[in-house]
Q: What sequence folds into this?
């Protein structure tokens, strides 16, 4: 996507529908799914939805991947005892989904597994199924983490908030 197309997308492409696509009830459902799924593995999952980037950010060359890394840091997803945080990041204006995993997870999970989760979410979002796409992304992330980092029944403290963040 060229910088001019990205600028127009961030200025005009449906970003104002953030609260309609992700209403409070859906955020509650997502919170519960994140909380319940974290009992299956040793990871910590965060979900952030951003309506758009500022015109200045787009003109400076900030893309969805670099913004997701910034959000990963801002939300302190890296700040877990076992380096086991994962961020699911959605940039609505550009129809982009990024997953950023902390180094403890990134060492063991293949990039294609994350790409598969992003593709499934993108397909649901493109069909206007925002809730289904978000819930599938959460469920698929939990399944992947349970496969690579099972909890084996160990309880652990919840290190990060489970509620999705609207930016």
A:
């Amino acid at each position: 996507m060229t910088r001019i197309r990205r600028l127009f997308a961030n200025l005009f492409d449906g970003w104002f529908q953030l609260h309609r696509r992700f209403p409070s009830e859906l955020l509650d459902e997502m919170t519960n799914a994140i909380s319940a799924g974290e009992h299956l593995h040793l990871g910590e999952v965060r979900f952030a939805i951003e309506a758009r980037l500022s015109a200045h950010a787009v003109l400076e060359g900030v893309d969805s991947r670099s913004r997701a890394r910034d959000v990963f840091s801002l939300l302190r997803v890296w700040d877990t005892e076992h380096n086991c945080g994962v961020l699911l990041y959605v940039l609505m204006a550009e129809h982009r989904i990024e997953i950023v995993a902390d180094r403890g997870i990134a060492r063991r999970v293949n990039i294609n597994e994350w790409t598969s989760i992003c593709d499934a979410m993108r397909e649901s979002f493109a069909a206007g199924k925002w809730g289904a796409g978000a819930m599938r992304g959460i469920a698929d992330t939990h399944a992947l983490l349970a496969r690579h980092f099972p909890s084996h029944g160990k309880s652990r403290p919840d290190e990060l908030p489970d509620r999705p963040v609207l930016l």
Notes: The mean pLDDT is 93. Helices lie at 3-12, 18-21, 24-37, 55-59, 64-74, 103-106, 111-126, 130-148. The radius of gyration is 16 Å. Strands lie at 44-50, 85-91, 96-101, 165-166.
